[in-house]
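To: structure subgroup
Subject: Chain for Friday's discussion

All,

I'm putting the inputs and outputs inline so they're searchable in the archive.
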Amino acid sequence: MTGAIASFSLLAVGVREVSATFDAFEIMLFRSAIGLAAVTLFLAATGRMAAARPRRMGLHGLRNLLHFCGQVTWLHALTLLPLAQVFALEFTSPLWVILLAPLLAGEALTRRKLLGGLIGFAGVLLVVRPGVSGLHGPGLAAGLACALFFALTSLITRRLTRTEPVVAVLFWLNLMQLGFSAVTVGWDGTWPTMPEAAQIPWLLVIGATGLSAHLCLTSALGAAPASVVMPMDFLRLPVIAIVAWILYAEPLDAAVFLGAALILGGNTLTLQGGRRGLTHRDAASKLTPS
């Protein structure tokens, strides 16, 4: 979890450092290219290329399109909002899962889940504080949209990982998102400028941490119950708030911390009320698919 927290924080800082030159679609192009190269080299070096052979290509395509939309809106939100507020809004993704699961996955909406959702929604209101917090409309919309897209991705990931190994999910994730990025970036006939020498290390950080965050979180869920991992994942918020305070002079907002604590409480209540047969992969999709 230390590796996951460090990865998510470095990823956010890396995006901030290159956002003046590259937009969200261009950052995704670089990130996906670096991620695809890393995953392919790993599979080739370990002789596991056969593991990447897809069994459900249609489901891969739908998942990765939704994940691409979530990633782009998350990257865009990082350029418009304080980093801590983006992370707090991202934590609302499991609340969307609560609402969407009965419709898309046939899961029951229990009283515990409904109570957890209401507590989490109260936390969202504290973070957003309509008319008080000063959040910009486009940034707020991007932050909430990324959580919604991540929730949809989570629901599909649960089905996909029943038949597909994690390496296959990562391989097709980066390959398809590279294609989506190329289309969106080149739609107007222009391509991003070559990165400057000072930007190359940050782009490498973005590509590497996009993979390491997922691998570290998955490993943590394999070593400890989700009820232990989830509160640790919440430490991303105070860590990124302190990092943003040091690097970008962003204020430490107590309301964001209190709201995020309510979101965490709602998520934890929902997770503890889940079925006993909840797998680590299911729990991982509830935490974050990014």
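Points worth raising on Friday:
Residues 275-289 have pLDDT under 50 and may be disordered.
Residues 116 and 266 are 4 Å apart (CA to CA).

D.
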